[in-house]
């Protein structure tokens, strides 16, 4: 939660600015950082010495700097001032929360920000306008960057562009972090703000207008920087609605496209045009409305459904139209009164898109039969009938399938429905879906393999545009989270999920809201039912309705804040670029290797991995809940298959995994080579296990510490990875890094949550963005476990610090990861005791990536998500998913294994260690940490695998970089021993082999 | 309904026996179960007219007159239309000349429709069915190896799908399970043909199941006999089966209070 502070601190440090802003923030930061350092140091890890090597900056936040310093250093140079600004900007967000802040405070902040801007590059938001301008500038920059990035795949030479991309990536990350941070950390920020107050200025307010379900309008003034939650709470308060989690605020972009207002983000960053007009709607249609606690909630649901039905969005038969209409009459008019209700009384209501006289007669006829029903009862009856409609709660999105056929994708409580015309042609229940992602205008779902199938498949759909794909993705993420995740028992988990990435659902899940609603203790609120009458009528007598049309004028006058959206876009674009570049690279490798193709039909799926990936943690759990025996059997079957793969024939499965994962380099290599590496790995694994046991005890404690460090590293890694991707299409690297980070997250999360200490926060925050995604993956692992036992199987950690250094000229990184993952898998396989866990892990692997076995944690969420979040049109044009650049690469894999556990890896690594520190700017280093926790015979083992991807041009001394990385790893985990070092070099043939 | 039967390669149909079986079939529905049975007049020019199921899909108050996939059967619809009109049902006719639909490909579970896409039924026909019954999800199921979707499955209870054991049947079942938000119980019988049974929920009788006789499919009959809550009525259908006829083919069930 506190990560924001950390990120801010970093930014500032990087920029070396001493603005007034810093003064404000620093107090906290400073306090935090020292603590962090202390904690780490105390843990016995010499992070400082190890990590910081390249950067010589000394500040309270030294750790962070150290972690990020190498990367940040290089990047910082290239970072445009506006990037820094963004960071600051994000910081400002927390302030936005209306009630808590005092106007004076805000003003002060703004001023300080402005000053900062002037002084250096890290100003905070001074004025919103300024911010907007910046954003715009950023957007432009990003576009440029993106273009460059896109082009790069084809051109291998644009280093500068790479750097820029990296910077962009950073920015994006930071932004994301900031956003998240803002949500979580708000309180802290507020405090900071208060401290350094300055002269007060006016708070800018914006008028918001919300169209309510009963046809009335609600308007209010909001702080310009207010978050969506503020407005939503106001509306719900106005409506006297407590069970509000089923609802949301819609705003329309381009008239047709409706978007849900993200309550955790600032409104102005989401809505482009100035008139802030929203529509209050049902967002999650409860499958069983009878379980709603309050009648008023059901009433609003009824209103929504009446709209849906009358508009044709919710199709129903003539009979159903009539029946529902009759309940509507009963609810709003009461018992049929022959005198009062003349023949035409019905025509004031609209029951159906094509309302006929015949239908109205039928409605009236049925109305008479409802005599005695109270309005609440009539509403309940209405809902009982409406909920059975096949399209109830289905959010439809236009799309095309892989063959260009027009279809509709329907998101509902149970999963994703595929319609062609009005026919359901497929359905993917949430438990079936392993990953949801989008890339540009493509939307992908990765589906759990069917019984006989060994590999999951990825299915792609083409959306009209990028925004549509993103919108669909978000809706899926939200629906899955809301309906499938049962988190009351696991608040931390849910929290992570919700907050983990930009697009995570941040509200309560259905389970949570149900639980919360049980606590509702108030007399049933009075409300008047008036809405279903035709518009003219409703507007007239609406008691609640606040129809200030003056508001509209006001809005129109202001007119031009597109900045917020642009910002988002920019971020997205940056991310997208990163991802795309990475992906593209991956793709290219895939194409080259024929082997991959043979093994996978899924290659496409790999490519497919969208920028935004949403991994379902709950899959396993869900299945348990819902599963039929068949499903369970299937699942087991799939697991067993995975096992077999791991256990039996390392060679075949591995190639798949390799290919799937990152792809190419391996293909270039002969399978034989890969096999060799695999074999080695297995042996090592055994050794590792033994080691792991010894290590286990300390790890829990260390885990936290390590995590923190790892997180820092991961962050760096991410940046690096971005660079890599930008520079060269090293999807593998990016993905691998992500995977690693995910793994790290696992370790991190657990520890963090357990020991959540402020000290770690900063670092965590930074990392969190990445990690959150990772966490998801981790969670997946955890989930997988549940099958056998339950979700939270306390995993013992065996930490086996294996550092793999990969030198990539450009494309390679993935292979190493694959190796690692394979090793891990093998290890898992070896450990029969933990089969369940292993299986789960395996499963999760499968789920996540095409090459399930290899990488459990790897790709999934982290990297992809970030990238996915926002992608701009520019990206689309340049890089199409299908495009697969062919890059020929050479791959060398060298594995150093320690004789065994006890001996510190030093010996093995020692060779490498001799190398010196790497500091070249051009070097990009990606570190991925895999923490595998397993329970063996009651002993918990933690294995840490670090993948360090060094991507660079000829400039880089890879040996040095490798040595440094190993050294750092050792230092970070003094208690751990390095059991294996796998060096995988991939060199593009086209280029000169640096290695 | 008469024995003028579509000729198909295979054993000769014993017309006399077929008629006897059909009389028994009608007798069970009418006499034993007390249903009102409306028999359509046999038309010797329409050899398949006994399979009335294919020409109409009735659900609740609405009847969809189909456009059978076999051109020779299109005229069968007319007789059915007359009868349905007499029942005051909302009648929808499938007029699209690109659409074909055989009622034998339509499985209504009570919650949703599954429509087999077979040689007799195409996408367009399924779409029209979906348009006709808007309240329900209509999912399509590819049918390859058999004539109709219901050649190997049917409803055997409110939430129970009887399914054959063949690979094609099991595959279709999986498809249906995947497509549905609802979880159905399944009753797997060794013989695909035996999986076509007639389930009725008659207020005075409870769960009633007409299934193929033990003499025909002894193993499958044993499976049905395990249904303890059902009134089980074995019915032989050996002759019509020779021309791809199954139990459900010979009737259209209409839930209508006896107004007539």
TrEMBL record, chain B:
Keywords: Hydrolase. The active site is at 148 (proton donor), 249 (nucleophile). One of its GO terms (molecular function) is dimethylargininase activity. Substrate binds at residues 5, 48, 53-54, 73, 120, 243. InterPro entries: DDAH-like. One of its GO terms (biological process) is citrulline metabolic process. Coiled coil: none annotated. GO terms for cellular component: mitochondrion. The keyword Transmembrane helix does not apply. Gene3D superfamilies: L-arginine/glycine Amidinotransferase, Chain A (3.75.10.10). The keyword Hydrolase applies. Belongs to the DDAH family. This is DDAH1 dimethylaminohydrolase. It comes from Erithacus rubecula (European robin). The gene is Ddah1.
């Amino acid at each position: 939660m506190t990560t924001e502070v950390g990120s801010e601190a970093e930014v500032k440090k990087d920029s070396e600015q001493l603005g007034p802003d810093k003064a404000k923030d620093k107090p906290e930061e400073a306090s935090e950082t020292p603590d962090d350092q202390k904690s780490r140091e105390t843990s016995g890890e010499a992070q400082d010495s190890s990590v910081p090597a390249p950067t010589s900056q000394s500040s309270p936040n030294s750790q962070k700097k150290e972690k990020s310093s190498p990367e940040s250093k290089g990047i910082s140079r290239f970072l445009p001032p506006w990037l820094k600004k963004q960071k600051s900007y994000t910081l400002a967000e927390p302030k936005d929360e209306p009630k808590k802040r005092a106007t004076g405070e805000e003003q002060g902040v703004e001023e300080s920000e402005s000053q900062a801007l002037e002084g250096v590059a890290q100003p905070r938001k001074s004025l919103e306008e300024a911010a907007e301008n910046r954003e715009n500038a950023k957007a432009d920059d990003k576009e440029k960057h993106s273009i460059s990035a896109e082009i790069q795949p084809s051109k291998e030479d644009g280093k500068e562009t790479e750097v820029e991309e990296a910077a962009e990536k950073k920015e994006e990350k930071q932004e994301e972090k900031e956003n998240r941070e803002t949500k979580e950390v708000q309180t802290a920020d507020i405090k900071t703000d208060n401290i350094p107050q300055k002269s007060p200025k006016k708070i800018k307010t914006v008028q918001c207008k919300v169209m309510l379900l009963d046809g009335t309008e609600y308007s209010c003034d909001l702080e310009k920087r207010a978050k969506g939650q503020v407005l939503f709470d106001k509306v719900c308060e106005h409506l006297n609605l407590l069970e509000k989690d089923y609802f949301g605020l819609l705003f329309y972009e381009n008239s047709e496209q409706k978007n849900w207002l993200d309550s955790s983000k600032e409104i102005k960053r989401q809505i482009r045009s100035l008139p802030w007009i929203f529509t209050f709607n049902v967002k999650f249609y409860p499958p069983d409305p009878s379980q709603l606690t309050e009648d008023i909630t059901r009433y609003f649901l009824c209103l929504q459904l009446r709209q849906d039905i009358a508009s044709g969005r919710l199709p129903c038969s003539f009979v159903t139209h009539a029946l529902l209409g009759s309940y509507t009459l009963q609810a709003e008019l009461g018992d049929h009164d022959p005198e009062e209700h003349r023949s035409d009384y019905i025509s004031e209501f609209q029951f159906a898109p094509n309302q006929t006289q015949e239908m109205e007669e039928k409605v009236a006829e049925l109305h008479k039969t409802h005599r005695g029903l109270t309005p609440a009862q009539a509403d309940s009856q209405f809902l009982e009938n409406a909920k059975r409609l096949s399209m109830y709660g289905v959010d439809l999105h236009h799309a095309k399938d892989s063959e260009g056929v027009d279809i509709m994708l329907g998101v509902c409580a149970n999963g994703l429905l595929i319609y062609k015309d009005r026919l359901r042609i497929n359905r993917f229940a949430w438990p079936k879906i392993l990953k949801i992602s989008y890339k540009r205008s493509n939307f992908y779902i990765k589906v759990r393999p069917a019984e006989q199938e060994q590999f999951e498949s990825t299915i792609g759909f083409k959306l009209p545009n990028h925004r549509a794909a993103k919108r669909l993705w978000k809706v899926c993420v939200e629906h899955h989270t809301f309906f499938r995740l049962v988190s009351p028992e696991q608040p931390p988990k849910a929290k992570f999920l919700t907050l983990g990435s930009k697009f995570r659902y941040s509200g309560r899940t259905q389970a949570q809201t149900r639980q919360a609603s049980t606590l509702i203790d108030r007399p049933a609120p009075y409300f008047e039912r008036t809405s279903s009458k035709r518009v003219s009528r409703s507007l007239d007598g609406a008691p609640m309705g606040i129809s200030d049309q003056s508001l509209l004028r006001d809005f129109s006058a202001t007119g031009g804040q597109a900045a917020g959206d642009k910002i988002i876009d920019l971020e997205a674009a940056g991310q997208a670029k990163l991802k795309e570049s990475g992906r593209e690279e991956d793709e290219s490798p895939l194409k080259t290797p024929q082997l991959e193709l043979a093994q996978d039909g899924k290659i496409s799926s790999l490519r497919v991995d969208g920028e935004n990936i949403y991994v379902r943690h709950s899959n396993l759990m869900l299945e348990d809940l819902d599963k039929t025996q068949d499903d369970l059997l299937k699942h087991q079957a799939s697991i067993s298959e995975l096992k077999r793969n791991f256990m039996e024939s390392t060679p075949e499965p591995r190639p798949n995994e390799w290919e799937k994962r990152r792809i190419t380099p391996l293909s270039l290599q002969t399978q034989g080579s890969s096999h060799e590496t695999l074999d080695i790995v297995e042996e090592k694994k055994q050794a590792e296990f033994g080691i792991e046991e010894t290590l286990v005890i300390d790890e829990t404690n260390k885990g936290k510490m390590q995590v923190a460090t790892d997180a820092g590293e991961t962050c760096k890694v991410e940046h690096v990875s971005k660079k890599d991707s930008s520079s060269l299409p090293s999807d593998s690297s990016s993905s691998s890094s992500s995977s690693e980070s995910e793994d790290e997250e696992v370790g991190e999360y657990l520890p963090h949550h357990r020991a959540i200490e402020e000290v770690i926060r900063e670092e965590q925050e930074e990392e969190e963005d990445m990690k959150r995604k990772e966490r998801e993956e981790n969670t997946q692992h955890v989930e997988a476990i549940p099958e056998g036992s339950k979700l939270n199987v306390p995993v013992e950690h065996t930490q086996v610090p294996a550092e793999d250094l990969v030198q990539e000229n450009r494309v390679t990184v993935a292979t190493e990861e694959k190796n690692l993952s394979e090793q891990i898998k093998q290890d898992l396989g070896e450990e029969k005791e933990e089969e369940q866990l292993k299986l789960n892990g395996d499963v999760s692997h499968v789920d996540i990536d095409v090459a399930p076995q290899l990488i459990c944690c790897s790709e999934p969420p982290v990297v992809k998500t970030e990238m996915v979040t926002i992608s701009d049109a520019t990206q689309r044009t340049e890089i199409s998913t299908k495009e697969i650049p062919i890059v020929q690469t050479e791959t060398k894999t060298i594995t150093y294994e320690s004789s065994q556990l006890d001996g510190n890896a030093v010996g093995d690594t020692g060779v490498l260690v001799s190398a010196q520190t790497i500091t070249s700017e051009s070097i990009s280093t990606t570190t991925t940490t895999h923490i595998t926790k397993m329970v063996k015979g009651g002993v918990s083992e933690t294995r840490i695998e670090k993948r360090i991807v060094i991507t660079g041009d000829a400039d880089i001394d890879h040996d040095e970089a490798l040595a440094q990385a190993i050294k750092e790893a050792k230092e970070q985990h003094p208690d751990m021993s390095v059991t294996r070092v796998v060096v995988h070099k991939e060199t593009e043939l086209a280029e000169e082999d640096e290695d | 309904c008469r024995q003028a039967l579509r000729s198909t390669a295979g054993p000769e149909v014993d017309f006399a026996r077929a008629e006897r079986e059909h009389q028994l079939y009608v007798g069970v529905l009418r006499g034993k179960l007390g249903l009102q049975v409306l028999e359509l007049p046999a038309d010797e020019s329409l050899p398949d007219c006994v399979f009335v199921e294919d020409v109409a899909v009735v659900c609740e108050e609405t009847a969809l007159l189909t456009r059978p996939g076999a051109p020779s059967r299109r005229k069968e619809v007319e007789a059915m239309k007359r009868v349905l009109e007499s029942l005051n049902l909302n009648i929808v006719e499938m007029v699209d000349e690109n659409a074909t639909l055989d009622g034998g490909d339509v499985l209504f579970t009570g919650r949703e429709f599954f429509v087999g896409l077979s040689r007799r039924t195409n996408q367009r026909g399924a779409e029209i069915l979906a348009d006709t019954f808007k309240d329900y999800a209509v999912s399509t199921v590819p049918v390859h190896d058999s004539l109709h979707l219901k050649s190997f499955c049917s409803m055997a209870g409110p939430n129970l799908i009887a399914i054959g054991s063949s690979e094609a049947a099991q595959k279709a079942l999986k498809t249906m399970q995947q497509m549905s938000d609802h979880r159905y119980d399944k009753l797997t019988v060794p013989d695909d043909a035996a999986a076509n049974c007639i389930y009725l929920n008659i207020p005075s009788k409870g769960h009633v199941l007409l299934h193929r006789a033990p003499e025909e499919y002894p193993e499958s009959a044993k499976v049905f006999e395990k249904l303890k809550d059902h009134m089980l009525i074995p019915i032989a259908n050996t002759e019509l089966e020779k021309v791809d006829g199954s139990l459900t083919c010979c009737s259209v069930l209409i839930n209508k209070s006896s107004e007539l």
